[in-house]
C-alpha cells in the first residue's frame, strides 16, 4: 500500500487536473513552481550557486566530488517547470550520489517550440565540457519531459560531434508524443492527472505546426540508441506514461544498451518529488544514487 506521505503527490496532480478541467489559468510561473517544489523537503548540507551568464544553478552538496556532475533536465511538459521547481529534488539526488549537479532553464513552449529545448540542452552540455568536465564524468537525469530530454539530448549531441556522457537516469520519462501506449487505457482511472488527450495536447504545443512526434530528437523510440551509456529508468505503476518507460527500456535493450527499469507500485507520475517526505521517493533516490555512483565511478560512502 502506498504511504500516506506519497499521497501528497496524488493530491498535487489531482488539483492540477481539476484546474485544467475547469479551465483555471494560472499565469504565475513562479507561484506554480513554488507549489510543485513544496512537495520536496529542503535537504541539509547543500549549497546553491547561481551560474553567471546562464539560467542555471549549481547544486553543491558538502563534500561532493568536484569533477563529477549530474546534468539535470526538469519536467513540466515543455510548458512549465524550472530550476526552482526542481532544485530541491535534484539536490536530494546530488547529495546521495556525492556529486555536483547543474539544473538549468531551457526555453518553454508555446513561445519556443522544438528544437529550442533540445538545442539548449546540448548547448548546456557543451558548456559543461568546456568547463573541463570529462564526458564520462557527466550523467544526464530528468523527469517527465526532462526524462525524454535525457535521451534525445544525447542523440542531438552525437549528431553535432560531441562525445556521449556516462549514461542517463530518466524517471517517469515522456517519450511517446503520439500517446499510443496501452497504459493510457489500463491506468486511466489510477493516474491522477494525465490522460491521452491532455498528453497529445501538450505534444501539439511543444512541436508547433512543423514538428513531428516521430522526430528522433523528440521521440527516442524512433532514434538509434546504439552506443549510449547505461540507462536507469524509474516509473510509477499508476501512471498512464508507464508504457513510455517500458518501451524506452525495450528500444534501449534492442540497441545493445545496458538498461534497467524499476516500476514502483501504486506510485504517480514523478513521485520522486516527495523526496525527504515519502519513503517511496527516498527509496527511489537511493536506487538512483547507487546507479550513478557506479556509472560515475564514485566510491560508495
Automatic annotation (TrEMBL):
Transmembrane segments: none
This protein's UniProt keywords: Hydrolase
PROSITE patterns linked to this entry: LIPASE_GDXG_HIS
Pfam families: Abhydrolase_3
Keyword set includes Hydrolase: yes
Taxonomy, superkingdom: Bacteria
GO terms, molecular function: hydrolase activity
Domain Alpha/beta hydrolase fold-3, chain residue ranges per copy: 70-272
Keyword Hydrolase assigned: yes
Family named by the database record: Belongs to the 'GDXG' lipolytic enzyme family.
Protein name as it appears in the record: Alpha/beta hydrolase
